[in-house]
Design goal:
heterotrimer; A: mainly alpha; 56% helix; 5% strand; B: 5 strands; globular
Amino acid sequence: MSHLLDVRLDNFEGPLDLLIHLIYKNELNIYDIPIAFIAGQFVDAVQEMEKMDIEIAAEFINMASYLIYLKSRMLLPKESLPLEELDPEEEKFILTQRLVEYSFYKDVAQKLRELENDSGKYLMRGSAIFIERESIQTEDPYRIANAFFCALEKDNEKPMKFEKDIVDVSDVIVKIKALVYEKQKLFWTDVVKTCASRREVVISFLSVLELMRLAIIRAMQAETFGEIVIEQIEQGAANG
Amino acid sequence: MDREKKIFFSSLFLAGEPLDNKFFRKILDPINLENRLLDYMEQFNGMSLGIKIRQVSGGFQMVTDKELFTELEPFFGEKTETLSRASLETAAIIAYKQPITRLEIDEIRGVNSSGTVRYLLDKNLVKVTGRKDVPGKPLLYSTTKFFLEYMGINDISELPTFREWQELKTK
Amino acid sequence: MDREKKIFFSSLFLAGEPLDNKFFRKILDPINLENRLLDYMEQFNGMSLGIKIRQVSGGFQMVTDKELFTELEPFFGEKTETLSRASLETAAIIAYKQPITRLEIDEIRGVNSSGTVRYLLDKNLVKVTGRKDVPGKPLLYSTTKFFLEYMGINDISELPTFREWQELKTK
């Protein structure tokens, strides 16, 4: 009896699995199960498990008691059965249906196992490859060569200077003050020469007026449309 | 058209994952497209390059030939555990009976399946697809597109039917 | 050998990125291997599949055919900016003059290049390869293996010479 289970109970997915195992093991016809025989085998298997101190899931106990109940019902004469209960033959039919259905899924699971193994042999790349825009469209050795040799040639040219488009008044005041401190005396046309734009000329003129107001410089014009001379007012000599 | 064929091959090369017909209808002339794609697939596979195009989960995917598995596996194989018997059984039931509730799965298996269903959900092999209109409104489960890809099949209908199985059994 | 060819193709497919000769020597018979690989590459490219094998920085890479760029780009185009003129110029100077210090680059360009050099380092197009034995011991920069791959060349010597560039320019 202890050799009845050649596979441990926890290798079975459930009571239906164990039942199917017993049916195949004893070469029984799944469509006409000898209930008394199978009930005995099933109960033995469960008891064996208990002896081996393996925790038995409630489903196995339920199935064992159901099988015993069904077995006892089948032994009783038909007439003695209460009317509200199912005919034992019908019960057996339902159990058979369940077993057949379950055994179908058991086989499908086996088929899925094969598919899983087979599919696992087709290796695939996990992630998509994105086309690098640059390497496909633009960058090529010629472009690199072009960039390099053009840079070398550019070396001989005077670097182009970009002036700020917006001229700041305070920047211009600082510039004119510096010019005046440096030269003591200069012409307005000298100031104009330092201007990058017409706009800066206008702002320079306003700056000169402002510096005159602050008594930092004085400006004189000898004749109408003549040169304007700008000169520094000596510190202390102011207001003098 | 030759250019179309090249786009088909190169898209599959870049994607790695399966690309479905919807994708190709966007990028190629949709009229009678599927037949042409099947033709291209056959041409490609006929060249025996070690790379194959397979039909899977309702689309096409570029994969390596399985006969090269032993050589390529050490370098490119991912170590993934296979599914347990309980998971396979549960997945099988969901595949055939979808959408199905957990209780209905339990009835067929004769055991509680909540653990395995959760595992399959985690693995993206099954998904929740609604609730059944019965008391308690239990969740309904179906298999995913990834399930098909994982099993390497194009459609659930590729699995044997109950009738086919019975005929085999009674022989 | 046919199987070797298949392994070559399928490895390149799985990797997606370049595989160097060292890799193939591990997986295939190393004797006279490179000649055979070149031969396989030619065979593959001769089939005009829309997928090509190209030689790159001491190895091979499977890529899509350039001519399919417009069709594939909307779906598989990488979302990156192209190199700016400043970066391209700086990369070019480093490529031709390597190893070179930042100051030397600045002198050629006439502007400060610290920003673009940092950008190229980030993009893995250039790398630090030592220090120059002059006062201040400034860092020396060279182009990377990725730079070669990016330009689609095997070796820096494949860049056009001044004479070649002039000829190209005047055409």
